[in-house]
Amino acid sequence: MGIRTVAVHSTADNDAMHVRLADEAVCIGPPSAKDSYLNKAAILSAATITGADAIHPGYGFLSENADFASMVEEHGFTFIGPSPDHIRMMGDKITAKLAVKSAGIPCVPGSEGALDTEEAALECAEQIGYPVLIKATAGGGGKGMKVARNADELRESFNLARNEAKSAFGNADCYMEKYLGHPRHIEMQILADNYGNVVHLGERDCSLQRRHQKVLEEAPSPALTAAQRESIGNIASAAIKKLGYRNAGTIEFLFENGEFFFIEMNTRLQVEHPITEAITGIDLVREQIRIAAGAPLGYEQKDVKFQGHAFECRVNAEDSQTFIPSPGRITNYHTPGGLGVRVDSGMYAGYRIPPHYDSMIAKLIVTGNTRAEALMRLRRALGEYVIDGVKTTLPLHNRLTQDQDFVNGDYDIHWLEKFVARSN
């Protein structure tokens, strides 16, 4: 696009690849995230001194922080994302659920709002039926989330969830949903401009999770028919249009027995966005920038074509069996290549992975004309990928892609944890 870029970084990331490759780089603080990547004033100062026009928040740290989005706009910069009001609305699970429900999106049966007392929780559980799931309203990443299969478990889990939510998010509020036994995690990618034009870019299947963290994603989902895709995509697009949302967003669903149930909406770019790019040919970050700059989408739903199949493996610097983080120096680094293989990473031989941040160090994205072809290509790419000096989750992905259930596309959100337990 010919746009000059400024990378902001902590001192721990002085040698990071994005810092080396950007047109300009500004250090915004020491390793601690609260003093650097979460330091709103430092980021705005970096934008000011470099003469930046816009700020892209990425997909971590402040990417879904409504106060930061407001500050960006108040200081005369363009925030490459939705409005602060929409970030705030979707950031609270209860207000998000009420908003999408009013816009016509199906939701999991559950409480109408936060449950303040154990008695209220027990009464709600009786109405919707056990098992139930207690969730923090400000939650994410599995924090403040507990399953209760009967009243005794609920009494214990309710207070545990509230305490965990208070500790993790500074907000103890929890709500309740019906716990689905064997759902898949399906998310719809949406793009919306400032002129009421909305399209969906199909679904991603993100069911392979461990402790509510996604491990491997694919698009399209092997569980959906074309008719189901079109139906839920149109429902999601209509809801987004009704809410007046702009920029990129992802609506996440649980899918069981042919039914979709809303979980949450992410008002940012997703880690797994490349697999959508792979099957649609649409560059999501480019679209985010164009929309933020005031450009219309320039195409309609009928113009979006889905071709082929794509997988994404999240490669973490972790022990593949214990999942204990493994920061340290990379001694050898060789990425796979060839047709349909993409690696998004800042790693290189000699780089020292800092211990301060999330352990994801790379994303391996592989595309094929069919799911079977993409899987064959993925296996080859995993076999070629070399990361020495630290432990990684590459061995887990190697095992996972050989398993017959995975080959058949026969899995749900609980499958991977059982697979890991079997493998260990």
Topology:
Elements: E1 6-10, H1 17-21, E2 24-29, H2 40-49, E3 54-55, H3 66-74, E4 78-79, H4 84-91, H5 93-102, H6 118-128, E5 132-136, E6 145-148, H7 151-169, E7 174-178, E8 184-192, E9 198-210, E10 213-219, H8 226-243, E11 247-256, E12 259-266, H9 273-280, H10 284-292, E13 309-316, E14 328-329, E15 332-334, E16 341-345, E17 352-353, E18 360-368, H11 371-384, E19 386-388, H12 394-400, H13 404-408, H14 415-423
Parallel strand pairs: 1-2, 3-4
Antiparallel strand pairs: 5-6, 5-7, 8-9, 8-11, 9-10, 10-13, 11-12, 13-18, 14-17, 15-19, 16-18
Helix pairs in contact: 3-4, 6-7
Provide a descriptive summary of the structure in words.
With 424 residues, this protein is of the alpha+beta class. The protein folds into 3 domains: 1-52, 3-Layer(aba) Sandwich (Rossmann fold), CATH 3.40.50; 109-178, 2-Layer Sandwich (Dna Ligase, domain 1); 184-423, 2-Layer Sandwich (D-amino Acid Aminotransferase, Chain A, domain 1). 33% of the residues lie in helices and 25% in strands. It has helices at 17-21, 40-49, 66-74, 84-91, 93-102, 118-128, 151-169, 226-243, 273-280, 284-292, 371-384, 394-400, 404-408, 415-423, and strands at 6-10, 24-29, 54-55, 78-79, 132-136, 145-148, 174-178, 184-192, 198-210, 213-219, 247-256, 259-266, 309-316, 328-329, 332-334, 341-345, 352-353, 360-368, 386-388. It has an 8-stranded antiparallel β-sheet with strand order 12-11-8-9-10-13-18-16, sandwiched between helices. The mean pLDDT is 95.
